[in-house]
Automatic annotation (TrEMBL):
Organism whose genome encodes this protein: Chitinophaga eiseniae
EC identifiers of the protein: 2.7.13.3
Catalysed reactions, semicolon-separated: ATP + protein L-histidine = ADP + protein N-phospho-L-histidine
GO MF terms held by the record: phosphorelay sensor kinase activity
InterPro entries per the UniProt record, alphabetical: HATPase_C_sf (IPR036890), HATPase_dom (IPR003594), His_kinase_dom (IPR005467), HisK_dim/P_dom (IPR003661), HisK_dim/P_sf (IPR036097), Sig_transdc_His_kin-like_C (IPR004358), TPR-like_helical_dom_sf (IPR011990)
SUPFAM superfamilies: ATPase domain of HSP90 chaperone/DNA topoisomerase II/histidine kinase (SSF55874), Homodimeric domain of signal transducing histidine kinase (SSF47384), TPR-like (SSF48452)
PROSITE patterns, per the entry: HIS_KIN
EC category name: transferase
Keywords assigned by UniProt, alphabetized: Kinase, Membrane, Phosphoprotein, Signal, Transferase, Transmembrane, Transmembrane helix
Chain ranges of the Histidine kinase domain: 422-637
Source superkingdom: Bacteria
The protein, known as: histidine kinase
Bilayer-spanning residue ranges: 237-256, 268-292, 359-382
Length: 643
């Protein structure tokens, strides 16, 4: 559904209170209006006129809704004020002034809930749902129309429920997941409008049934249904329904690429001008202007250009005048104006009739006192608002401090977990090897020579483990206050040599050679222990998955201002399902799918470390065999080395 069609459709659904009106009803109410002496009945008549004019003549509807709101506010007639608020919401939705319409509907909803007006609550919820659908917020639209449907069902408001069902269909017709439910809602609406003899409601439902006929593939029948609606609406003077039906039919014809679509676009615009709905037709006006420009019919193109200019000027005036009207309503300016007018009238009468001086004098004093009291109340509410705003600001600051404290605690907890995982990863393998070697010796399954060699291996492994432990312990001492990145500039080749020496016993077991392709002068700016942890992890994984008698290649290349270091092995490579989430840990199940015990946590820590140093980390499978793990860091620029 195009944006223009949806805009017209959502506006049409706001007319629920006025579709029962006919021209003779409007005439009867207008004739009876001067004879009504009761203020409340007068407001009810104005609201009824506003609702009757909505599908016929928009400007008249707005005039009567504004008058009803003014009088109802001045006399404190809450029901009349609620109906006037809904009338103003309908009026501004068709201008269209969506935001101001939403404000009036929200005020009407609040007032209806306070007064226990179920029908008013249903209407306001339904209208707010249409507002959100037009704004593109489909979940919010579904929420409000579903609430409206529930209230109408619980309160047995069947005649109003028909309109809520139509709204439900309109909001969900384009959602294939709930389309069957929406179609069922439309059929229920057909039955209810027929049950309550809602002639115009049934006419309105035919617009949606035409959509379903078109969806079923019967294009001629859908066109015939819409032409019947246009003829009936034109005869009844329902300019809005005729305008929308012409727009919908034009959409069908445009879809079929038929030339007579232009005729129905022009007819829809004619109905819009007659009813004052031109604010909704700017896209149609633009289409017609472009068409006649292409046909070089400058006279007609100029007329549509002038009409578009009038629409844009009207929208600008609505933005200025409409918002001022609403703010005046909120802050009670209408009541103050009424009191000032009463004061002026009373003062004029005092000047004319001196015989009633004392009476009018006291009247003026009372009115003035009321005005002063209202002013004091207004000042009180302004001050209360400011205090509330200040308290809200203080609470926001406090919440931010709490959030920062929680974040610091979380970071501290994450840091401790990472330290434990890092220590477990770096010491598991060497300690396991030491235990295995000593186990062989205790079982006396070795010769003296083999035992001597293994004792030397134990000594080497223990020394390497002790060295790693002392390095990590020194680094941990610098991190006791939290996770702090302390970079320095180091020779990359020396760091790789240290890593190779640490894991020498694993290399010797599988007779694996480490080939360095690193220029001696290349330096890296990083935290030493964080980077060495990554080196040890990359080399350890490469050894683990490399076949015996193979070679592991460590390379370093410069790319602009970056240094890329890669560890390439000749193993079996990494499964593609594991490769995509190698450096993330979303669940325990994923962790168990990773090759090698403990590798997943270590790689996650590697990614965290490299990002804290301002770099990136990744892995991929080689074209021939094996895989490559690499990281990128900013290249060190100052040649000041730290040991």
């Amino acid at each position: 559904m195009s944006r223009l069609r949806y805009m017209a459709l959502s506006c049409l659904l706001l007319i629920t209170g006025g579709l029962y009106a006919q021209q003779n009803e409007i005439t009867n109410i207008k004739h009876a209006l001067p004879t009504i002496t009761d203020s409340m009945k007068y407001v009810d008549a104005l609201n009824r006129l506003s609702a009757c004019y909505i599908p016929c003549q928009l400007d008249s509807s707005g005039i009567y809704a504004t008058a009803a709101n003014t009088i109802a506010t001045s006399i404190g007639y809450e029901k009349g004020q609620r109906n006037a608020l809904r009338g103003l919401g309908r009026y501004y939705s068709l201008r269209p002034h969506r935001y101001l319409s939403f404000l009036f509907y929200g005020k009407a909803l609040e007032a209806s809930r306070t007064a226990g007006d179920s029908a008013g609550v249903v209407a306001a919820l339904m209208n707010i749902g249409n507002y959100y659908q037009y704004q593109g917020n489909h979940p919010a639209a579904q929420y409000y129309v579903s609430k409206a449907l529930k209230v109408a069902w619980d309160q047995h408001l069947d005649s109003l429920r028909a309109w809520v069902l139509i709204n439900y269909y309109m909001i969900n017709a384009a959602d294939t997941s709930v389309l069957p439910v929406a179609q069922k809602a439309l059929q229920q609406a057909v039955a209810l409008t027929s049950q309550y003899n809602d002639y115009l409601g049934s006419l309105y439902v035919k617009l949606f049934l035409a959509n379903e006929t078109l969806r079923a593939g019967n294009v001629p029948a859908a066109e015939a249904q819409l032409k019947g609606v246009i003829a009936t609406a034109d005869h009844q003077g329902l300019n809005y329904i005729a305008m929308y039906a012409c727009t919908q039919l034009a959409g069908y014809l445009i879809w079929q690429r038929r030339p007579d679509s232009l005729q129905y676009q022009q007819r829809s615009l004619s109905y819009a001008v007659a009813g004052g709905y031109t604010g909704l037709m700017l896209p149609v006006i633009t289409t017609l202007f472009n068409w006649y420009q292409q046909q070089q019919d400058s006279l007609r193109a100029a007329s549509y250009s002038q009409l578009a200019l009038q629409v844009m000027q009207q929208q600008q005036e609505d933005i200025q005048e409409g918002e001022a009207d609403y703010l005046s309503y909120v802050f009670g300016d209408e009541l103050m104006d009424s009191l000032r007018m009463q004061y002026q009238l009373q003062h004029a009468k005092l000047q004319q009739g001196k015989s009633n001086n004392y009476f009018w004098y006291y009247q003026v004093i009372i009115i003035t006192a009321i005005a002063i009291l209202l002013a004091i109340l207004l000042l009180y509410f302004v001050r209360a608002y400011r205090l509330s705003h200040m308290n809200a600001a203080s609470m926001a600051v406090l919440r931010e401090e709490i959030r920062k404290g929680n974040k610091a605690l979380q970071e501290s907890d994450d840091f401790k977990n990472k330290l434990i995982s890092m220590i477990a990863h770096d010491f598991r393998t060497p300690l396991h090897n030491i235990v295995n070697i000593t186990g062989f010796i205790e079982e006396e399954a070795l010769t003296v020579t083999d035992a001597a060699d293994m004792i030397l291996q134990v000594e080497t492994s223990a020394a390497a483990t002790l060295t790693v432990f002392e390095e990590i312990l020194a680094w941990i001492r610098t991190q006791l206050s939290g996770f702090v990145y302390r970079p320095g500039i180091f020779l990359l080749s020396d760091m790789i040599d240290t890593t190779v020496n640490t894991l020498h016993h694993l290399l010797a077991e599988k007779d694996i050679q480490v080939q360095k392709e690193i220029p001696d002068a290349i330096t890296v700016n990083a935290d030493y222990e964080m980077l060495q942890f990554i080196h040890r992890n990359f080399l350890h994984n490469a050894i683990k998955f490399s076949p015996k008698h193979s070679t592991i290649t460590v390379t370093a290349i410069r790319e602009k201002e970056w240094l890329q270091v890669a560890f390439k092995d000749a193993g079996t490579g990494i499964d593609t399902t594991v490769l995509s989430r190698l450096f993330s840990w979303n669940s325990q199940a994923e962790q168990q799918e990773r090759p090698g015990k403990g590798a997943g946590v270590a790689l996650i820590i590697c990614k965290d470390f490299i990002e804290k140093m301002g770099g990136t980390i990744s892995a991929n499978n080689n074209q021939d065999r094996g895989s490559t793990f690499y990281y990128r860091l900013p290249e060190a620029k100052k040649m000041v080395l730290r040991k």
